[in-house]
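User: Just a sanity check before I run the rest of the batch. Below are the structure tokens for the first item. I only need the designed sequence back.
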């Protein structure tokens, strides 16, 4: 049986990711922040003082990638890295005052975007999407 371009679910997922990622990138550009950097800030706004290893695990990114993003956020004055008292090799990441205030600017924009993306989608549909995506991921692990 011959397969058509539209038969592959991964194409829909990829196209959705590209469109949504580009939209978020444009939304965040006035704040001079990349979407992946914003994910780090979202995690810290929720739970300040995570280690770089914890950020890496939560975002599914390698430690080198996280270290680069953290350094960039530090250069922007939004976070600071502190060596753990018990293990000097462990770097914990904390928001600065500027980083905490930044939340007030960014969260309304992200919340509006989230509302727009989920418009017309029920909680039941959203949960179904989560379940299906989790299965797709499990199938390739």
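Assistant: Here's the designed sequence for the first item:
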């Amino acid at each position: 049986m011959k397969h058509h371009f539209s038969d592959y679910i991964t194409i829909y997922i990829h196209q959705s990711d590209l469109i949504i990622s580009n939209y978020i990138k444009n939304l965040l550009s006035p704040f001079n922040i990349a979407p992946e950097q914003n994910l780090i800030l979202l995690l810290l706004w929720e739970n300040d003082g995570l280690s770089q290893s914890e950020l890496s695990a939560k975002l599914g990114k390698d430690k080198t990638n996280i270290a680069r993003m953290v350094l960039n956020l530090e250069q922007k004055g939004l976070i600071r890295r502190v060596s753990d008292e018990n293990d000097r090799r462990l770097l914990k990441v904390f928001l600065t005052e500027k980083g905490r205030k930044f939340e007030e600017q960014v969260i309304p924009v992200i919340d509006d975007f989230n509302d727009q993306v989920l418009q017309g989608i029920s909680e039941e549909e959203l949960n179904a999407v989560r379940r299906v995506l989790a299965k797709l991921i499990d199938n390739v692990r």
